[in-house]
Write a structure and sequence with these properties.
This protein is α/β, with parallel strands linked by helices. The protein has 20 helices and 17 strands.
């Protein structure tokens, strides 16, 4: 039988790209009638990691094409790039790449920030499916707020001035200060409305989550068919469990991270707290010292992915600390006092660390990929969100799913929103002690959900069934 061609267009950025590639790989492994081409958009001046990562996924029925960089000028005051605006510049390159694909084109699968590519799919006469890289509850929140805004803009503005909101996809009222950053910014409504209108232009929404993890949120879509009007396919957890990203080059003098796993091998079971804040997580000296004081007072063994922020007033990437800078930033004598119980790394092999039996807790920024990885490996989370929708994820983990403890729920790196503050050592210490409680209900629940996250993608599981329905839909388009 002739293969059916599907085009995937992920958003720029490692987190979205890896999740998309893993999902594409899952589809071709499930059905050999599918052939997938992934068109990779890169942020300007990105390093070689993206290209190397893409190459690792180039398989017989999965082809990865790195699109050429386009001339793009940032329109934001801080010089940052908009994924959706960057996608718009890539339309000509996407049209050319798709025109060169042989075979029966069936569908596009576009990232939640690449909905402009639905226009291209329409030109080729095929449907588009949206790949939503956050959870079901967050999808419900976005769609519900969009409906409120379109029905009555002024009433919604007044509603958002309250302390809490009732959101159908959440069982508990959601504190306004844990809403995604885009909603708390001034003059956000127009961009948000246009973004969600783009989501609704798709023929269906694929969500990187699963029914067993978010049962209330999943059920809310069944109860409110007018919320979206589209089929929802929870197909997760889609995780990158095998492909190992290469560590970033180390500055001279940094404590070498090559022995990270070997060091974990020598630690007692569930004794190490892993502290890691994703690819953008880095703090100034005052906050670093508070974290260090908290670790020392807790007495916990620790593995700390400690990253150096760019110079103040710049938008550069975070980097690893040279040893001399690390000594200057940490409390005096801290390295000597903790040498037997702790290790520092810059870039961290996160999946390997979370999978290790010595890891007992995770201080995390609550990015959705990190959240799924931690649950999959049965490691409870102490929440410290930084940006985007991470505050909403943190609230869901602590109050909806009961699989996390709170260090903070409303902390944000984005200064224009105004909730960036110094988290004290006492609060961080309480979070570490709580998440490392070996007999707690949270740990028990995370372990149970770890089993569910493995079963759901096996035959008979809810995600396995959703993937089957999705494949049937794609095949039937030809």
């Amino acid at each position: 039988m002739k293969r059916v061609e599907v085009v995937f267009i992920p958003s720029p950025g490692v987190g979205h790209l890896v999740s998309t590639l893993e999902f594409a790989k899952l589809l071709i492994n499930r059905d050999n009638r599918l052939s997938i081409t992934v068109l990779v958009i890169k942020f300007p001046n990105t390093d070689e990691k993206i290209q190397a990562l893409s190459s690792a996924f180039d398989l017989e029925n999965l082809h990865v094409i790195n699109l050429p960089e386009c001339t793009y000028v940032s329109s934001t005051p801080d010089g940052s790039y908009s994924a959706s605006a960057l996608a718009e510049t890539q339309k000509p390159n996407v049209k050319e790449a798709v025109s060169n694909i042989n075979g029966q084109l069936a569908a596009f699968v576009v990232d939640m920030f690449c909905t402009t590519m639905i226009d291209v799919a329409n030109e080729f006469g095929v449907p588009s499916l949206l790949y939503f890289t956050s959870g079901i509850a967050y999808l419900g929140l976005v769609l519900h707020l969009h409906r409120l805004l379109e029905n009555n803009l002024e009433a919604t503005r007044l509603l958002l001035q309250q302390d809490e909101l009732d959101i159908p996809s959440f069982f508990n009222p959601v504190p306004t200060n844990t809403l995604p950053t885009v909603i708390l910014r001034k003059k956000w409504e127009s961009d948000f409305i246009n973004h969600v209108r783009g989501l609704k232009k798709a023929s269906g929404i694929i969500v990187n989550s699963f029914h067993e993890l978010e049962p209330h949120a999943a059920h809310s879509f069944l109860e409110d068919s007018g919320l979206c009007g589209l089929p929802i396919y929870p197909v997760g957890p889609i995780l990158n469990l095998e492909t190992k990203l290469k560590p970033e080059p180390k500055p001279n003098g940094i404590i070498d991270s090559n022995d990270t796993i070997k060091w974990l091998d020598d630690q007692p079971h569930s004794s190490v707290i892993f502290i890691c804040f994703g690819s953008m997580g880095a703090f100034d000296e005052d906050q670093v010292r508070e974290i260090a004081h908290a670790i020392e007072k807790s007495g916990a063994r620790f593995l700390w992915s400690m990253r150096k922020p760019p110079p103040k007033g710049t938008m550069g990437p975070v980097s690893d600390y040279p040893l001399c800078d690390m000594v200057a930033v940490l409390p005096e004598g801290f390295l000597d006092r903790t040498v037997e119980i702790g290790r520092f790394v810059g870039w961290a092999p996160q999946v390997q660390v979370l999978a290790h039996p010595a890891t007992g807790g995770f201080v995390s920024h609550c990015g959705w990929n990190s959240t799924l990885e931690s649950i999959y490996h049965g490691v409870p989370i102490a929440t410290w969100p930084l940006l985007a929708e991470q505050q909403t994820n943190a609230f869901e983990l602590v109050h909806e799913l009961k699989m996390g403890v709170e260090i903070a729920l409303d902390y944000r790196m984005e200064y224009d929103v105004g909730s960036n503050y110094l988290l004290t050592a006492d609060k961080i210490e309480r979070g570490i002690r709580s998440v490392m409680n070996k007999n707690g209900e949270i740990r028990k629940k995370v372990k149970e959900m770890s089993e569910q996250s493995r079963k759901t993608l096996l035959e008979g599981g809810s995600s396995y069934t959703c993937v089957s329905h999705l494949i049937d839909y794609i095949i039937n388009q030809v």
